[in-house]
Design a protein that fits this description.
- The complex is a heterodimer.
- Chain A is α/β, with parallel strands linked by helices.
- Chain A has a single domain, classed as von Willebrand factor, type A domain (Rossmann fold).
- Chain A has 6 helices and 6 strands, in the order H-E-H-E-E-H-H-E-E-H-H-E.
- In chain A, strand 1, helix 2 and strand 2 form a beta-alpha-beta unit.
- In chain A, helix 2 runs antiparallel to helix 3.
- Among the domains of chain B are: 129 residues; 158 residues, no CATH class; 59 residues, no CATH class.
- The longest helix of chain B has 79 residues.
- Chain B is elongated, with a radius of gyration of 54 Å.
- The C terminus of chain B is likely disordered.
- The chains are: A alpha/beta, B mainly alpha.
- Chains A and B meet through helix 2 and helix 3 of A and helix 7 and helix 10 of B.
Chain lengths: 221, 509
């Protein structure tokens, strides 16, 4: 065996070993928060459509959780349904069907909450997403972003988003926003600042015809 | 010290400083003119020589490569022609074994037929009826003079009647004999036909062999040309090799497309078997995709071995040199493997169809649309299964164009490499010449920069030579002679060989 052959084998072996390096996570995890406070429950059907879209888009190995925003959202009890799809496509399809059924049940019996603890929901979502160890993490907030917390709850502190992409969906304008639109803009700006200062990215998607852009930059698997 | 400071080194005004700088530079350049010219010439000569050496080396390499290409081409052509000749001999052997092995029996048959025909022919020979022996006696009796004697007349009448009867009988016998002969000739007809047919068959077979022998003759001529290593044979083989390269390349592209379709058929169901979303290390390769590709690659490898085992291709000498029985056994084993793989692929294709249907149903359910079972769903299912079964066998035939491609690519790559080397050699020569001429050009530019001191030097030299010339002539003739020659400096310069003027370069001459 010549020197060239040995060198060639060495090069091939190096390439193989380089290919067998540490695996990079390519899966996606999505945590969707649904506001159930006040009159926003009327928007729940739109949220259902978005969940269905997510179920159709997410693939094997991805994770999805849907939680409600109520008076105290930093709780596992507020998670309506969560799943990590099996690596087998047929099994994943069954899981998607079960998830859809759970969401349909939730939509049928959802009730309004007195307060809106968005921060608590966000922290719960960050915990869930970090546990999944996914390559791409998303928090989708389906809310008007008007936070109303109970007396005694502490939510005014910085949150570490650690590269999580946060999207506010269907941020409706309140009656007071119509009187002074600056309130609406300030609300959005405040959340943007909070997310970006915590290391996350922020975007607003109000046009539900563009929901396909929600996970547009995720890693394909 | 920055550039701006240097610019204002001699004066605060940039223009004046620049002029001083120019004067200084030109002065230095004028002083160092000879050495600078030598350096430029030496440098360009070095480049020129190096480029020429490189060009020669490359030309030599190209020559070796061309010779090697020629040898490869002729060697391949020799092997290929040998295979053709061998194949033709095999065909001849098959023809001889199949057609001419029955020749002795045919010959016997022909002999029998000829004998039969001959016998019949002998029997059909026309035998003229022999005249009765008493005709002569009758002739004498008939000559007897009657003289009106009724007895004689009666005798003659009797004789006449007897003769007539004998004539009728002879005629009747003759007719019977003719009829019998015609019958025999009619009996001969099928034998003639049979014999004609047998002879035509023999003729056809002989003609076939004759054609084969002509083909073998042509091949042998070609083979002889190749062995002689003539340019004509090399040219023919090169042209044939290029054609083979493009045709085989085209077929391989088509095969690659077939492989891609095959991959699409089994990649999705493979994810059901080995799981989707798992990647090979840090690469972007899904394990299921790799598994599908491995299956297809193994099928192609099986196909290559199968083609080798049945003697269609000659890519692996180890298989080719095996015993015929062993090769046949290996071929059957490989075929069994291929059959198994084809069955697996067919099942996977069916599974893919089921998965696609399930996914479609889920998508419809998520979109809130009522799930509708499509009619005639079984048609694409069966189509996919058939494709899954047939494609592995179709990919088996990749071995044939692959062999042609590998053999012809050796020649084509050699030709391309030789062309590249030729271009490189030309470029080296071109670059060497350019560098040599660039040296002259740079020297001229150099002299153009120092034109002012050069002109001054020229004038000084011309004045000095004029004075010395005048004094010499005055001394010789005892008178002052007015010099009207407008070009004394040139004479002096030529005599003393001073620094050359711009536009007059010694290297150019």
């Amino acid at each position: 065996m010549g020197v060239k052959a040995v060198l060639g084998m060495f090069a091939v072996l190096s390439l193989v070993l380089a290919g067998c390096g540490k695996p990079v996570p390519r899966n996606t995890a999505v945590y969707m928060l649904i506001d159930t406070s006040g009159t926003y429950t009327q928007e729940i059907e739109k949220a259902q459509k978005i969940i269905n879209y997510l179920l159709g888009t997410l693939a094997t190995g991805d994770s999805l959780a849907v939680a409600k925003i109520d008076s105290g959202s930093f709780s596992e009890k507020d998670i309506v349904a969560k799943v990590t799809f099996d690596s087998k496509p047929s099994q994943a399809n069954s899981q998607k069907r079960a998830f859809q059924t759970a969401i349909n049940r939730f939509v049928g019996r959802v009730s309004s909450s007195a307060y809106t603890d968005i921060t608590g929901g966000m922290i719960q979502g960050i915990e869930f997403l970090n546990e999944t160890g996914a390559g791409s993490k998303y928090i989708l907030v389906f809310s008007d972003l008007k936070e109303e917390i109970q007396k005694g709850q502490v939510r005014d502190f910085p949150i570490n988003f650690n590269g999580i992409k946060v999207s506010a969906i269907n941020v409706t304008k309140l009656r007071t926003d119509n009187v002074d639109p600056r309130e609406y803009l300030d609300r959005l700006e405040a959340w943007k600042t909070r997310v970006e200062s915590g290391g996350g990215t922020w975007r607003v998607v109000n046009d539900l015809n563009r929901i396909e852009t929600l996970l547009g930059d995720r890693r394909e698997n | 010290m920055s550039g701006a400071n240097l610019l204002t080194l001699w004066s605060d005004q940039v223009a004046i400083s620049v002029i001083w700088w120019m004067v200084l530079v030109i002065g230095v350049m004028y002083v160092a003119r000879d050495k600078a010219h030598q350096a430029i010439r030496a440098f360009t000569k070095v480049i020129h020589k190096a480029a020429r050496i490189a060009a020669r080396t490359i030309q030599s390499t190209e020559k070796h490569l061309k010779e090697r290409n020629r040898q490869v081409l002729l060697q391949h052509g020799r092997v290929s022609t040998e295979r053709h000749i061998e194949r033709e001999f095999q065909r001849v052997a098959v023809t001889v074994n199949r057609d001419l092995s029955g020749y002795p029996s045919m010959q016997r048959k022909l002999k029998e037929q000829i004998t039969k025909i001959d016998e019949d022919y002998q029997q059909t020979a026309e035998v003229p009826p022999s005249p009765p022996n008493w005709l002569e006696a009758i002739e004498h009796v008939a000559k007897i003079p009657g003289n009106g004697d009724p007895t004689v007349a009666k005798i003659l009448d009797d004789i006449h009647c007897t003769l007539k009867r004998a004539n009728d009988k002879a005629l009747s016998e003759y007719r019977d004999a003719s009829k019998r002969r015609h019958g025999l000739l009619k009996h001969m007809l099928p034998y003639w036909r049979k014999m004609t047919h047998s002879l035509e068959t023999v003729e056809k077979r002989i003609n076939n062999l004759d054609e084969r022998s002509k083909i073998i003759d042509n091949q042998m001529d070609q083979y002889a040309e190749i062995l002689k290593q003539t340019d004509q044979s090399a040219k023919l083989l090169s042209s044939s090799s290029l054609t083979q390269f493009f045709i085989a390349g085209l077929v391989l592209v088509i095969a690659a497309l077939g492989g891609f379709i095959n991959f699409q058929l089994i990649a999705l169901p493979m994810s059901e078997m080995v799981g989707a979303g798992t990647y090979v290390g840090a690469t972007n390769w899904q394990v299921s995709d790799v598994a599908a590709m491995v299956i297809i690659s193994v099928e192609i490898a099986m196909g290559l071995f199968l083609m080798e085992a049945i003697g269609v291709t000659r890519l692996f000498p180890v298989i080719g040199s095996m015993d015929d029985k062993l090769r046949t056994r290996i071929a059957w084993i490989l075929f069994s493997f291929l059959f198994a793989f084809a069955s697996i692929e067919s099942a996977l294709a069916y599974m893919r169809d089921i998965m696609a249907t399930d996914r479609e149903a889920l998508t419809q359910a998520l979109a809130g649309v009522q799930v509708v079972q499509a009619e005639y769903r079984w048609i694409p299912s069966i189509g996919q299964m058939v494709m899954g079964f047939v494609l592995p066998f179709a990919l088996t035939f990749v071995a044939i164009p692959l062999e042609s491609f590998i053999h012809s690519s050796r020649t084509v790559l050699g030709v391309v490499a030789a062309a590249f080397l030729r271009f490189l050699a030309f470029f080296c020569r071109f670059f060497g010449n350019i560098s040599l001429n660039a040296g002259s050009f740079v020297i001229n530019i150099y002299d153009l920069i120092v034109i002012v001191p050069l002109r001054v030097e020229q004038l000084l030299h011309s004045g000095h030579s004029g004075r010395s010339d005048r004094s010499e002539r005055g001394d010789r003739n005892g008178h002052e002679i007015e010099i009207k020659d407008a070009k004394p400096a040139k004479v002096v310069i030529a005599a003393k060989k001073p620094k050359s003027l711009p536009g007059i370069d010694s290297t150019m001459s």
